[in-house]
Amino acid sequence: MRVLISGFEAFGGRDINPTALIIEALEQKQISYPTTIKVDHVLLPVTFEMAFEVLQRKIESYNPDVVIAFGLARREAIELETVAINHIDAKIQDNSGIKPQNQMINPDGPPSFIATLPVQGIEGVLKNAGIPVKISNDAGSFVCNYLFYRLMETNQETFRLCGFIHVPLIPEQAGPEDPSLPLSEIHRAVSLILHYIDY
Ligand code: PCA
């Protein structure tokens, strides 16, 4: 089984994106996973123009069975996204400086797509391991939701399992009011997810 994991560069004036640190940790073999699966990774730009292009290029060359895209959000738990919506409404500029608002991703596309990753199972595994986790039906209306929608749309006719997971800020970057989760817990979650999907 081949698994592709994506993360995003920093954006929105923050200098760290914990999902870029997931990619770094995979590269440095700091996240364990069963030897029966192969894992590759890709770091994506936070731009509407290029994020999905870079991911899809990697999907075509690597031909994964599972694609798990990670992004940062100001949330209290690891949130397993279930619904990608056909809508863009940026509240901040992307890394190319654009802020598209109140637009459809694809005027000819359906209103939404549902993740094919086994989110219920993943939720159970993370919960048992004491990691804060939730199933979410709101991936936002910025680059993450955009990437998620295009990922699901483009891979509809394949057997590929695809999904999107938001992770919280890490304590080092969180303000006093911000919820956060240590990077070691985020790494542990990725490892548990990789063990779980190898069934
Ligand atoms: N989070 C943003 C885009 C990149 C990222 O890591 C989002 O939730 O849309």
Question: What attributes characterize this protein structure?
Answer:
Aminopeptidase, 21% strand, single chain, 199 residues, alpha/beta, binds pyroglutamic acid, six-stranded mixed β-sheet
Describe the structure.
The chain has helices spanning 18-27, 51-62, 119-128, 143-154, 183-197, and strands at residues 2-8, 38-44, 66-72, 78-81, 83-85, 112-114, 133-136, 161-167. The protein is of the alpha/beta class and 199 residues long. It has a single domain (2-196), classed as Peptidase C15, pyroglutamyl peptidase I-like (Aminopeptidase). The strands form two sheets. Strands 2-1-3-8-4-7 form a six-stranded mixed beta sheet, with helices on both faces. Strands 5-6 form a two-stranded antiparallel ribbon. Helix 1 links the parallel strand 1 and strand 2. Helix 3 (119-128) crosses helix 5 (183-197). It is globular. The model has no long low-confidence stretch (mean pLDDT 97). The structure holds pyroglutamic acid. Pyroglutamic acid binds at residues 8, 11, 17, 19, 46, 71-73, 140, 142-144.
**What separation lies between the terminal Cα atoms?**
10 Å
- How much of the sequence lies in strands comes to 15-25%
* CATH class placement: Alpha Beta
DSSP strand count: 8
Give helix % range: 25-40%
Instruction: Quickly give the structural class.
Output: alpha/beta
Q: How is the secondary structure organized here?
A:
Elements: E1 2-8, H1 18-27, E2 38-44, H2 51-62, E3 66-72, E4 78-81, E5 83-85, E6 112-114, H3 119-128, E7 133-136, H4 143-154, E8 161-167, H5 183-197
Parallel strand pairs: 1-2, 1-3, 3-8, 4-7
Antiparallel strand pairs: 4-8, 5-6
Helix pairs in contact: 1-5, 2-4, 3-5
The structure holds pyroglutamic acid (PCA).
Pyroglutamic acid is lined by residues 8, 11, 17, 19, 46, 71-73, 140, 142-144.
